[in-house]
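JOB MANIFEST
job_type = single_chain_structure
chain_count = 1
residues = 412
[input]
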Amino acid sequence: MQGFDPVFAVSEWLRELLLGWGASELVTRVTLQFIGAFVVGMGIMLIFVVLTWVERKGAARFQDRIGPNRVGPYGVIQPIADALKMLTKEDTRPKGADAFSYVLAPIVAVFSVLMAWAVIPFTEKWIGADLSVGILYIAAVGSFSIVAVMMAGWSSNNKYSLIGAFRGVAQLISYEVPLFLSLLVPVFLARSMGVNSIVNAQGAENGGVWFILMAPLAAIIYFVSSMAEVGRAPFDLLEAESELVAGYHVEYSGIKFGLFQAAEFLHSFTFAALMAILFFGGWRGPGPDVWYLQLFWFFLKTSVFYLMIIWSRLTFPRVRIDQLMNLNWKFMVPVSLILLMGMPLIEYAARGADNWVRVASHSSFNIVLFVVSFALAARSDRKTQTRERVRFEGRPVAVMPKTPAAEEEPAA
């Protein structure tokens, strides 16, 4: 990467400073890694503060209202006021709750999101740990959120929390299947599980083709599965205020409730970042390979997909639990498996051909598979609706029994 790199310059300055103070090479390296992790974690939490304002103002525009506008110009200081409220609000705990699990659950929820950012590349060089199995690492730490949901619901000693946790875990585990299957598609195309390697595989040296052109169906499956994994509308059955009071975290208040909200917002932003990395080239974009342009393209693409998540939340109504599970197990999982088995065959058939022939072959397979599977799903849905309507219309109508008529009094 050309030009001056401020992160590299600061890290070298700190390294020389620590070595000058007499610190060993091991202590210096560990200290720098700790400082880097702290800076990334604090930066991501600062992004959460900004996201709360963006989502509230966006929701206000969608719903034709003003939104936060009292605290600071355009309400920009409203998130700070909300954070202070969370910090100073009374922190209660239900009687009979398991104290250790009750306190640990929101910490695990935030921890699972922050750990994923350790392998996400902001630029070509700005990455915490360029692991060769970065995708596997993200899948592993992302699963911690399931543990947090179950811990919160069980430890609260509340039947509504427990029911919400059961339903939440069923949803999260179910949608992890198509989510992970769709993650394997860019891994296959890049021939690597490293996150930065997947970005480099979409560069000019490899044809300059984003994976969205080769696997549009995998991108759609990933986007829908990620919204269900986060629990955002129309898949917000984890909270379902009208049914379960607030879901698995109904008994939480104060800073613990704020941590659950932070985990939800940051989880959405993390999936938006992964969408940009896996299918849209990540930090790659027009212009020279300098750190500030790479950082700009990364956050621009991530912001676009995060706004799409907000748009979906404010547009579509909540689905039922049976519709949610039918969409996953009867449509997305079979399609993901067919896609994952078919793309290697297309790759083998197109070996030795021009790069654009390879791209067109993969794209055509994705489009055909989507059209055929969608048509079959629509046909099955129509049959189900017809069967339900016939069963309902053939059901005997309940008639109230007639009461015996009162005896008429004899005429005078």
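[summary]
The chain is about 70% helix and 0% strand.
The radius of gyration is 26 Å.
exit_status = 0
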